[in-house]
Amino acid sequence: MRKAAREMLRKVWTGLALVTIVGALSGCGTTKTTATKATATSSQKTTKTQTKRQKLISALPKGVKSTDSDLVVVNEWHKHSEMTFDKSSVNGIAVRSSIVKPLEAFIAGAKKAGYPATIVSGYRSVAYQQEVWDQSIQTYENQGKTAKEALKLTKEYVAVPRASEHETGLAADIMNTTWYNNHGNQLLSSSDKAKGQQWLINHAADYGFVLRFTKAGEKSTGIDYESWHFRYVGKASAQFMTKHNLTLEQYVSLLQAREKANK
Ligand SMILES: [Zn+2]
């Protein structure tokens, strides 16, 4: 029921040209022997994780810095005010001018492979996101929901203003055109069953993009899996993140660790 309602709501929102981002924020010791053993295993695990992290840090692409503008992290824990940058449009969708070429190449690549793609959404201002947010709260309240309920429901379907990656101009929602048209212009994770969407996901890094909200990364990003939301990070970073299955949050944290160590 909840899922059905969610899908329906998605449809409504998409119809209103509002793209939904669903934020998901969402034994005891007995004998001494066991306790000692458990501690040893746990410390082995920690060491293993640390070694893996060290290996990743030393393999990071050269010349990339955590402060590079392409790597800006915007999420519920890292909010931003309105950002200033040049904007241009690709297929009628506004994005940061610096990503026009790679985005055009990505779309052209998909088309050449036999999978035409549609850019559904790009840059959105903080002001616009706020408007969407306020409208949603108002709509729920008009339906008789309490302020608390309206906030909870809105949070489920609308990105918190100042926390949406679309505000960076570096993100684009991209769908396989055929699938998108055959599914009432909805953004649904099940689109990843379509070969054309898989092509986008599997080739994004060649053009400097990553699928930003992966299944494995839900805890790290705070956002449910989205098979359509691509984020530009630059080719070297995209390839590294994809190869090692890292979210932008995790990747930037590794870069910061390298910078700290080199100080
Ligand atoms: Zn998006």
Task: Note down, in words, how this protein is organized.
The protein has a 4-stranded antiparallel beta sheet. It starts with a helix and ends with a helix. The protein is globular, with a radius of gyration of 21 Å. Helix 2 crosses helix 10 and helix 4 crosses helix 5. The chain is an alpha+beta fold and 263 residues long. The N terminus is likely disordered. A hairpin with a 2-residue loop joins strand 1 and strand 2. The protein is built from 10 helices and 6 strands, in the order ααββαβααβααβαβαα. The chain has a single domain, classed as Muramoyl-pentapeptide Carboxypeptidase, domain 2. The structure holds zinc ion. The site of zinc ion (ZN) has 7 residues, from strand 4. Zinc ion binds next to strand 4.
Total number of helices = 10
> How many structural domains can be distinguished in the coordinates?
1
Order of helices and strands: HHEEHEHHEHHEHEHH
CATH architecture: 2-Layer Sandwich
**SS strand fraction:** 5-15%
Strand order of the largest sheet: 3-4-6-5
Please estimate the helix content. Answer: 40-55%
Q: In the CATH hierarchy, what is the class? A: Alpha Beta
- Could you name the CATH topology? Muramoyl-pentapeptide Carboxypeptidase, domain 2
